Amino acid sequence: MRLSGFPASDPAPARPTDAERVRSVLAAAHSMSVVTDGLRTEVHRSPGADVLGRFHLHPAPGPADPEGPAARAGDRPAVRLEFTDIAPTPVRDRVRARVTVLGRLLTPHPAAAPSDPAASTCVEYDRAVLETAEGIVHVGLDELDEAYPDPLAAHEAGMLTHLMDGHAELVPLLLRLAPPPAPGCTVLRALPLAMDRYGLTLRVESRHGHHDVRLPFPSRLDDVEQSGAQIQALVSKARRMSHRNTLPA
Questions:
Q1: How many CB atoms lie within 10 A of CB 58?
Q2: From CA 27, how far away is CA 48, in angstroms rounded?
Q3: Which domains are delineated in the chain?
Q4: Using one digit for the tens of pLDDT, what is the confidence trace for 13-49?
Q5: CA angle 61, 64, 68 (to 5 degrees)
Q6: How far is CA 73 from CA 58, 88, 103, 145, 169, in A?
Q7: Parallel, antiparallel, or unpaired for β 31-36 and 39-44?
Q8: Cα angle vertex 227, ends 225, 230, to 5°?
Q9: What's the helix, strand, coil split of the chain in %, to 5?
Q10: What secondary structure does DSSP assign to 212-224, as a single string?
Q11: Rounded mean pLDDT of the chain?
Q12: Buried-exposed string 166-205: b where 16+ CB fall within 10 A, e elsewhere
């Protein structure tokens, strides 16, 4: 199962697919919860490795396999790998997504053999469940294996905090690209919430709640080095806008 890299440029939607979103959450995760036999274990990323480094996802046997899932399910403890995608900036409601990988253990959990640094766990993959503000979707292994993590996934947290801390004056400027607020709705603040190869998302907060504004890049990114030019293109476009969204002083 691929966990890095991305294909050559081709026509793409304006936002990541569900499978791409799952892959990006897995690629950027620093920790996960492993739940099996009623026990929860916290697993943290090792230096130089991704958090899934000791877990290998495998397809379930086909229905014609005499040793298929129905025959041996009782011998394979169910397992859940839980990931939480949290915004790196201090926005309201910082949880952006939750991903749960469901399956069955094919080999013992490495926690059972902590003295063996090479211990690994094979997991018979059932599905991944992606939960966001838009709803809940299921992603199969074939779909997941065909997707690639976003090229910004591992860098996004640092890029967003740098934008907020080092170039805070650009965020109100970028608000010019968003639709004006509804009458009587006073914007209290806006902060960068997320960034992917297709665009930047701002969270706009008011006294009555918050909403997210997606600002698409002029073209899709294929490398993190292209992000600066794309942000600058949004800033240049905002400076040419005639109407202004304003924040209180």
A1: 14
A2: 13
A3: 18-146 (2.30.110), 156-239 (3.20.180.10)
A4: 489 999 999 999 999 999 999 999 889 999 988 766 7
A5: 40
A6: 15, 40, 10, 23, 57
A7: antiparallel
A8: 135
A9: 25, 30, 45
A10: EEEEE-SS--SSG
A11: 85
A12: eeeebbbbbbbbbeeeeeeeebebbbbbbbbbbbbbbbbb
In this predicted structure, which of 51-65, 163-177, 181-195 has the lowest mean pLDDT?
51-65
Q: How far apart are the first and last CA of the chain?
A: 50
Task: Look up tokens 């805070």; give the residue.
Answer: 168
Residues in the chain: 249
Instruction: Name the band, by pLDDT with cuts 50, 70 and 90, for residue 3.
Output: very low
How is residue 148 annotated by DSSP? -
pLDDT, one tens digit per residue, over 175-215 is: 999 988 777 778 899 999 999 999 999 999 988 899 999 99
Indicate the pairing of strand 199-206 with strand 209-216: antiparallel
For 213, other C-beta atoms within 10 Å of its C-beta total: 17
Give the integer Cα–Cα distance in Å for 119 and 112: 9
- Report for 33-37, 54-58, 66-70, 116-120: range of highest mean pLDDT: 33-37
C-alpha to C-alpha distance for 75 and 69, rounded to whole angstroms? 10
Q: How many CB atoms are located within 10 Å of the residue 153 CB?
A: 25
Burial 230-241 (b: 16+ CB within 10 A, else e): bbeebeeebeee
